[in-house]
């Protein structure tokens, strides 16, 4: 590196390249990131508008409902958000279909392939190993691309959209659905819709937030799902199996890109923080309403 | 009894005779009242009458004997002076003086003629009922029944006089007889038995005149009768009549202001021609309402010839009381503005009619006034109502806070309630009552009930706004519900605002609603229960009644229903309808949207809005295409009742277990993770620090190398 006379053809970038490789690993595609944003915007809208009704006995709910412009406006927001979420879900399913068509060929390949979201034996092993690690009886497991809690979160969304979405539709169109369902089904639907929603919001705003975004070692914030990239070191540390597989197959280089400029990162962070703040506020509200003001 | 069967017959006949002869007496009585010229038709009838009389005398002759025999039979026992019986612990003499009886006007009548209920009764016969004189003297009986005395008896007044009270019983003689108990000379004493000063009647009954007997005795009439034996002089009955005694407020009364001239001119027939003060030569009778009546100057019972020239004209009063600044000994302003009186309802009432204790023989006639003005002299009915009211009761107790007539109506400038200037005009009533009932005022201070800020609440209520802002004078004001003169606390069963009476009170204006309510489950006529049923004020409040289309009212009413229907309200708030309502929006169905407002019936009642026949229609009020299956939605469902709603119960607990289970797993997982995560963070930071140090070293060595190159 002591040569002052740099050859003309050498790229400038190479010349100023930092000693450490600053490139980042692409974990999520643009579509996946977009869908996550759609999901979290619609989810928060649904949570706020739905919980005002569920916790109508708190003075908070009355204020929030007023700020939202009344129960009718809140209702429009709720249903619009529901449609967005349905679309997000549909887009994801379509994405899976495309993935199957372009990459895996058959559904079986997609479902039982190495990057499958379906929990399998490996996940069970990792889960047990993790518990051992928690209690100090083993090393941290070598996680692959998808950990078992990530798979759990993924299927929780499937389950939630199905359960909350279907009961929500009966409540949206009660006259239509009672053409073939008994009237009391609306009551049952209300209970399922509301309790499952409570589970979803409660889980997302606490456990998911912790597992994925707020873990101490990642504090203050893991923004991978928003930027789509993670540091190579982080990949090595968090998903060692995936990293090794990539290196072994020589696919790693193809997945590395330059990081976003700091301003973009800051924007993502701001958004993530806002979402996190709203979500945490809702979590606090839920705790308050369920424990201190429950009627 | 062998002859028992025969006896009634003879009595029948004798009764007939009495009634016939009584009719003759009547005829005679009437004839004496008819002017000479008018008597001719009766005189012509005399011939027929004489024949009839002869025939009757024959019958009397035939039947007199059995009547006499019966009387003798009764006297066989009752002739004994010592015969008595114990009634209520006191010995009551049953003695009848046979001589006196046979000398009495009823001598020819058998005992059972009057004691008809004893007819044919064996010895010892039961205690006879009270004799009904009216069975023969029906005319007098009718007059008596309509009179003050008769009405008092009818309402059970223990002091009410009966026939015997004035006439006696077995020794009654004709009025014309010198020794009649109701002869002219005796009348003042007969009436005086009850109406002399200090008697129970004078003390306890509402009689405006005082010292009646004394005043009468000193009056020109009394003097003539009692001191000079002039039996034609007016006695009590001359003015008050014998049987048809009525209060002076009664238009039919002989002493009513409109009739008094007629009564006086019965004797003073030529007064029109000779009276000095005949005004414009017109007749008093004709215009009694315009002209002063006899009594305006010649006060009842006190009439003296010496007073004639004085009279108690208003001008006499005005001589002093028109002076500005006239003060009483205790400093009260005594000036009475004539213009004030003239503009008032009492413009045509003389001062002395209200200030009745004046004595015109004094230089200051008013110096004899001891009592305050008693309005009930004329406004008797109102006075009775007032006495029953809480105001009147407090006044009777001597409470200084108790309002009297003048407190509300004023004194000399009283206006009719239809005059917008009047304090009792509907729009002025709230302010009138507020004088005492506004917060901080004397009535509000002593009040311990639950109604507060009455006046300001009323002013903001729909009634208050209707009356005071929209000027709707038909709107309910204080007196519409509480009445003007008979206001009573809510707790009094007689009160118009007692829960029992509230529907009727409100129904006075809200008529259709009252009918609906009376047929509803909340009406005591429909629901037989010991629990308190709601009335209008339970839901609408008393003084804060709002428009029912206001959002605030619609939402509040649910709390009202929930006060009694606690469980139903609770479970309602578990449903979408309830939750939205609780957020403060009135658009979703509330209690009354489904159950109705005033016509609430049991759901099992076919008339109910929620009966099988009506429920779908009710749902369709909001859900246009609702079906019967849709109506199966459980509007009061709760997941806490396993027996009633097992599906909801299990759905709820299923979901709750799922929720709790997931949170436990997620929570424990997270908590276990935390220490490891912190450890990782520490390791990471340490590594970063090491890397940074290495990098710094590298940099330093690099720089050194660079420097070497430069060298």
Spell out the blueprint of helices and strands.
The complex is a heterodimer of chains A (295) and B (711).
Chain A: H1 12-16, E1 24-26, H2 30-54, H3 59-68, H4 70-104, H5 107-112, H6 121-134, H7 148-172, H8 174-177, H9 184-214, H10 224-227, E2 229-231, H11 232-238, H12 240-249, E3 256-257, H13 262-292
Antiparallel strand pairs in A: 1-2, 1-3
Helix pairs in contact in A: 2-3, 2-4, 2-9, 2-13, 3-4, 4-7, 7-9, 9-13, 11-12
Chain B: H1 7-33, H2 40-78, E1 84-87, E2 90-93, H3 98-103, H4 111-114, H5 138-146, H6 148-154, H7 163-167, H8 187-195, H9 200-204, H10 212-218, H11 220-227, H12 236-240, H13 260-264, H14 271-274, H15 294-297, H16 314-321, H17 338-342, H18 351-354, H19 380-388, H20 390-396, H21 405-409, H22 429-437, H23 442-446, H24 454-460, H25 462-469, H26 478-482, H27 502-507, H28 511-518, H29 536-540, H30 551-564, H31 566-572, H32 576-582, H33 591-595, H34 615-620, H35 646-710
Helix pairs in contact in B: 1-2, 5-6, 10-11, 19-20, 22-24, 24-25, 30-31
- Count all strands of chain B and give the number: 2
Estimate what percentage of residues of chain B fall within beta strands: under 5%
**Largest interchain contact:** A-B, 49 and 53 residues
Taking the alpha carbons of the first and last residues of chain A, their distance comes to: 74 Å
Q: CATH fold name of chain A, please?
A: Fumarate Reductase Cytochrome B subunit
Instruction: Determine the oligomeric state from the structure.
Output: heterodimer
Task: Give the rounded overall mean pLDDT of chain B.
Answer: 81
Low-confidence stretches of chain A: 1-19
Q: Which stretches of chain B of 5+ consecutive residues score pLDDT under 50?
A: 1-45, 276-282, 306-311
Rg of chain A to the nearest angstrom? Answer: 23 Å
Largest sheet of chain B: 2 strands, antiparallel
The string of secondary-structure elements of chain A, in order, is: HEHHHHHHHHHEHHEH
* 3D shape of chain A: globular
Tell me, rounded to a whole number, the average pLDDT of chain A: 87
Q: What is the structural class of chain A?
A: mainly alpha
């Amino acid at each position: 590196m002591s040569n002052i006379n740099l050859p003309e053809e050498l790229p400038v970038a190479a010349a100023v390249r930092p000693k450490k490789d600053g490139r980042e690993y692409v974990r999520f595609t643009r579509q996946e990131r977009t869908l996550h944003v759609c999901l979290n915007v619609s989810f928060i809208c649904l949570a706020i508008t739905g919980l005002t009704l569920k916790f109508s006995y708190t003075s908070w709910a009355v204020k929030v409902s007023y700020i939202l412009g009344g129960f009718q406006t809140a209702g429009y927001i709720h249903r619009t958000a529901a449609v967005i979420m349905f679309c997000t879900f549909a887009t994801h399913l379509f994405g899976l279909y495309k993935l199957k068509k372009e990459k895996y060929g058959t559904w079986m390949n997609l479902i039982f392939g190495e990057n499958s979201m379906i929990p399998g034996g490996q996940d069970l092993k990792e889960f047990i190993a993790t518990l051992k690690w928690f209690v100090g009886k083993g090393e941290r497991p070598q996680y692959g691309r998808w950990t078992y809690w990530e798979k759990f979160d993924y299927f929780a969304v499937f389950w939630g959209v199905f359960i909350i979405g279907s009961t929500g539709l009966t409540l949206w169109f009660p006259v239509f659905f009672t053409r073939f369902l008994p009237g009391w089904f609306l009551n049952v639907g209300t209970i399922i819709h509301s309790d499952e929603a409570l589970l979803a919001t409660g889980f997302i705003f606490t456990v998911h937030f912790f597992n994925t975004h707020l873990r101490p070692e990642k504090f203050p914030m893991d923004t991978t799902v928003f930027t789509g990239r993670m540091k190579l070191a982080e990949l090595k540390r968090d998903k060692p199996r995936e990293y090794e597989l990539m290196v072994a197959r020589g696919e790693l280089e193809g997945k590395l890109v330059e990081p976003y400029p700091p301003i973009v990162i800051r924007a993502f962070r701001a958004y993530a923080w806002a979402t996190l703040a709203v979500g945490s506020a809702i979590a606090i509200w839920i705790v308050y309403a369920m424990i201190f003001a429950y009627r | 009894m062998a002859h028992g069967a025969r006896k009634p017959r003879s009595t029948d006949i004798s009764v007939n005779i009495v009634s016939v002869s009584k009719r003759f007496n009547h005829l005679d009585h009437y004839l004496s009242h008819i002017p000479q010229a008018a008597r001719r038709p009766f005189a012509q009838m005399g011939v027929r009458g004489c024949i009839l009389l002869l025939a009757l005398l024959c019958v009397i002759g035939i039947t007199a004997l059995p009547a006499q025999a019966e009387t003798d039979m009764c006297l066989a026992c009752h002739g004994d002076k010592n015969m008595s019986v114990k009634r209520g612990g006191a010995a009551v003499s049953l003695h009848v003086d046979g001589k006196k009886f046979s000398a009495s006007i009823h001598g020819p009548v058998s005992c059972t003629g009057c004691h008809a209920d004893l007819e044919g009764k064996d010895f010892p016969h039961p205690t006879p009922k009270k004799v009904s004189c009216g069975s023969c003297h029906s005319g007098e009986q009718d007059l008596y029944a309509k009179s003050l005395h008769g009405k008092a008896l009818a309402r059970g007044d223990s002091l009410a006089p009966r026939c015997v009270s004035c006439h006696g019983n077995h020794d009654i003689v004709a009025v014309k007889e010198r020794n009649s108990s109701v002869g002219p000379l005796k009348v003042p004493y007969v009436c005086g038995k009850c109406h002399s000063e200090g008697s129970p009647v004078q003390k306890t009954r509402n009689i405006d005149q005082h010292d009646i007997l004394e005043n009468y005795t000193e009056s020109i009439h009394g003097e003539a009768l009692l001191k000079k034996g002039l039996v034609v002089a007016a006695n009590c009955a001359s003015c008050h009549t014998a049987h048809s005694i009525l209060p002076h407020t009664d238009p039919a009364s002989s002493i009513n202001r409109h009739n008094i001239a007629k009564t006086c001119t019965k004797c003073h027939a030529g007064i029109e021609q000779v009276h000095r003060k005949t005004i414009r030569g017109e007749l008093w009778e004709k215009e009694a309402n315009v002209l002063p009546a006899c009594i305006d100057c010649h006060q009842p019972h006190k009439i003296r010839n010496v007073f004639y020239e004085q009279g108690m004209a208003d001008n006499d009063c005005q001589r002093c009381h028109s002076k500005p600044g006239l003060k009483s000994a205790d400093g009260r302003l005594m000036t009475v503005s004539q213009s004030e009186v003239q503009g008032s309802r009492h413009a045509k009432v003389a001062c002395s009619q209200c200030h009745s204790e004046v004595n015109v023989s004094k230089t200051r006639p008013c110096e004899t006034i001891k009592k305050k003005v008693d309005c009930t002299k004329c406004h008797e009915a109102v006075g009775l109502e007032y006495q029953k009211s809480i105001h009147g009761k407090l006044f009777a107790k001597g409470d200084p806070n108790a309002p009297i007539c003048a407190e509300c109506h004023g004194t000399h400038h009283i206006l009719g309630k239809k005059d917008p200037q009047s304090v009792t005009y509907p729009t002025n009533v709230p302010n009138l009552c507020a004088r005492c009932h506004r917060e901080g005022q004397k009535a509000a201070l002593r009040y311990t009930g639950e109604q507060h800020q009455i006046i300001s609440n009323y002013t903001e209520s729909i009634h208050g706004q209707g009356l005071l802002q929209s000027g709707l004078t038909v709107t309910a004001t204080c007196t519409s519900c509480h009445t003007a003169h008979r206001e009573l606390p809510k707790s009094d069963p007689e009160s118009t605002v007692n829960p029992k009476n509230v529907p009727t009170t409100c129904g006075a204006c809200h008529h259709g609603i009252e009918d609906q309510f009376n047929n509803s489950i909340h009406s005591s006529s429909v629901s037989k229960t010991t629990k308190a049923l709601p009335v209008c004020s339970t839901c609408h409040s008393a003084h804060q009644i709002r428009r029912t289309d206001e959002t605030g009212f619609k939402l509040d009413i649910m709390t009202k229903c929930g006060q009694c229907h606690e469980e139903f309200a609770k479970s309602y708030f578990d449903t979408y309808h309830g939750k939205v309502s609780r957020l403060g929006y009135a658009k979703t169905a509330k209690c009354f949207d489904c159950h109705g407002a005033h016509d609430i019936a049991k759901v099992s009642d076919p008339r109910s809005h929620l009966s099988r026949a009506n429920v779908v229609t009710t749902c369709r009020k909001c859900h246009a295409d609702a079906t019967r299956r849709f109506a199966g939605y459980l509007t009061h469902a709760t997941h806490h009742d396993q027996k009633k709603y097992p599906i909801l119960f299990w759905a709820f607990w299923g979901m709750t277990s799922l929720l709790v289970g997931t949170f436990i797993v997620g929570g424990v997982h997270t908590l276990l993770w935390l220490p490891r995560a912190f450890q990782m963070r520490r390791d990471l930071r340490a590594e970063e620090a090491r890397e940074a140090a290495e990098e710094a070293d590298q940099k330093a060595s690099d720089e050194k190398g660079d420097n070497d190159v430069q060298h």
